[in-house]
Amino acid sequence: MDLKKIIAVTGRPGLYTLDAQTRGGVIATSLVDGKRIITTPSQQISLLSDIQIYCLGEEVPLTEVFEKMLDHEGGKIASVKPKASNSDLEAYFFDVLEDYDEERVYPSDIKKIIQWYNLLIANKLISFTPKESKKETKQTPTTKEK
User: Fold this and answer.
1) What pTM value is reported for the model?
2) Which residues contact 124 (CB under 8 A, 6 or more apart)?
3) 66-123 pLDDT, tens per residue?
């Protein structure tokens, strides 16, 4: 999962693909409607590959959270709607990432992560690859007849 060219821009909904960098900001294309934008120096830009989620032990990269969501959903969009109640959002996120820090990860953060996940699935930027079950092959000794 390579999200190095996918960005979030403060004050703007959705996600963007990074097209070019300018002196004052970046030129990006919206994943929602395909429109190009130019950011200003006052807008904060976050690469999805750099975002971390607070957990009880150590922070988990957002890409790892997306992978867990892919496994949980089987490669489909999230089963919970981003506009669901806070308790439903927290219950869903606990199913996906059971050791997340409930005091520092707010329902609004979970809502945004679910929206981003659905957007990435819709644009086929992340995809589900079923994990192969590890089959142990037993070797039977062969006997030679004389």
Assistant:
1) 0.84
2) none
3) 999 999 999 899 999 999 999 999 999 999 999 999 999 999 999 999 999 999 999 9
Q: Where are the domains of the chain?
A: 1-50, 51-128
**C-alpha–C-alpha distance, residues 18 and 108, integer Å:** 24
Mean pLDDT of 11-37: 94
> What is the separation, in whole angstroms, between the first and last Cα of the chain?
56
Does the domain made of 1-50 have the CATH classification 1.10.1760?
A: no
- Helices 86-96 and 107-122 cross at an angle (nearest 10°) of 60
80 three-class SS: coil
What is the CATH T-level fold of the domain 51-128, as seen in this structure?
A: Arc Repressor Mutant, subunit A (1.10.10)
Q: Which of 57, 32, 23, 37 is nearest to 120 (CA)?
A: 32
Which residues have CB under 8 Å from 95's CB, separation 6+?
A: 72
Q: Which two tokens stand for residue 129?
A: 């690859």
Indicate the helix (H) or strand (E) that contains 26. Answer: strand 26-30
Question: In angstroms, rounded to a whole number, what is the distance separating the alpha carbons of residues 6 and 45?
Answer: 10
pLDDT digits (tens, 9 = 90+) for 38-67: 999 899 999 999 999 999 989 999 999 999
